[in-house]
Amino acid sequence: MPDAIEAHFIQQINQNLAIVHKVCRIYFTDPDDRKDLMQEMMYQLWRSYPHFGGRSLFSTWMYRVCLNTALTYRRNRRKERTESLSLAHQEVAVDKSESREEEVSMLFKAIAKLTALNKAIVLLYLENLSYDEIAEITGLTRSNVSVRLVRIKKELEILLKK
After folding, report:
1. What whole-number distance in Å separates Cα of residue 106 and Cα of residue 162?
2. Residue 86 lies in a domain
């Protein structure tokens, strides 16, 4: 990669680095797994950057690469671990009240029980991405995203009632 392109890539990555952290955090609780996944994501982003082409926002493309990498990484892991999201590993701005923290913790525990693809959809939805953007990143149709979100919300509601 020529120096100017490399500098632009690094600048874009630095501006959107939170995407990598969010995706790692939603799929893995173990710090070592997160580090390994983050390293793999950076490699995949670097490897696929020459094919980016600018047909979408850099952040949209980056979400897609990171989510696909996370799904592949998770699928290829030999030893599955039980996942649970703890509030201590989340960068969530919440009130200091215990009830609010408990609600957020329960929500992340419920999200941890979703399938890998549904976790990705929830993450993107919570990032306030449009259905069209979620569809582009996940490779689903807009209507499939809409239907899945309705089902995911119902599933989370049931899990939270337990």
Report:
1. 10
2. no
Place of tokens 């990498």: 69
Q: Give, in degrees to the nearest 5, the angle at Cα 29 between 28 and 31.
A: 100
Cα 10 from Cα 73, distance rounded (Å): 23
Distance CA 140, CA 125 (A): 14
Distance CA 145, CA 135 (A): 6
CATH code of the domain containing 145: 1.10.10.10
Q: Which of 93, 59, 74 is nearest to 24 (CA)?
A: 74
Q: Reduced to 3 states, what is the DSSP secondary structure of residue 43?
A: helix
pTM of the model: 0.66
Residues 6+ apart with CB under 8 A from 114: 122, 152, 155, 156
Each residue's pLDDT tens digit, 65-119? 999 999 888 877 744 443 444 444 444 444 445 667 788 778 888 888 999 899 9
Range of the domain at 31: 1-79
The structural domain count of the chain equals 2
Are 118 and 142 contained in the same domain?
Answer: yes
